[in-house]
Amino acid sequence: MTKLSVNINKIATLRNSRGGNNPNLIKVALDAEQFGADGITVHPRPDERHIRYADVYDLKKVLTTELNIEGNPTEEKFVDLVLATKPAQVTLVPDALGQLTSNHGWNTIEHQDYLKTIIGVFKNAEIRVSIFVDPVLEMVQYAALTGTDRIELYTENYAKEFAKNNQLESINIYKSCAYAAKEIGLGINAGHDLDMQNLGFFVQQIPIIDEVSIGHALICDSLYLGLHNTIQLYKRQLGDKRYEI
What we know:
- By secondary structure, the chain is α/β, with parallel strands linked by helices.
- Helix content is 47%, strand content 16%.
- An eight-stranded parallel β-barrel has the order 1-2-3-4-5-6-7-8, surrounded by seven helices.
């Protein structure tokens, strides 16, 4: 069954907007675990506008599920953070400095040599590596040559097309990429703009997805539904029968 990793960046954004420690990021992460999350995702950026580097050290001390750290490994501080905290997984994302949100995957052909080197650094530390890729078969095929353990399919286009009622058309390339990845021995994660409306169809069509990472939509839903209820509703979309009505 596909696992749910809850991205808590938006909780940190809210906390940082007023200073202090409200909401308490660590408590929210621990509560998310208790409510059914299979993991916690954070994406610290150089300007620390949401997750701070210190938050990652604090989270590592207390989490009992998988910690997934996302970021651009060209930032030396990010690499040092990952090696120091040794999360279950590091997800490498080719964000530009100051980028609002991740919006494209790696060119696994152009950056082949660099990815091989940096992935080797993390794998030598016994950290599972996933790399962010667009749903392009060639990018998936070349990803296998980098030494990565998994890919994370960038799902923004799927979400946009789903909202236009182009569900079947939009899912086809993701399905092809996922099964191509599985055929060459890669694990498959997915993320970006997945929500309560489009998630169930996505994993029904591609049941081999190992993990989805969801933050913005899940936190927005929780404003109306509560965090406990929202996480269980998302788990239900993933087919977790423990949360069926």
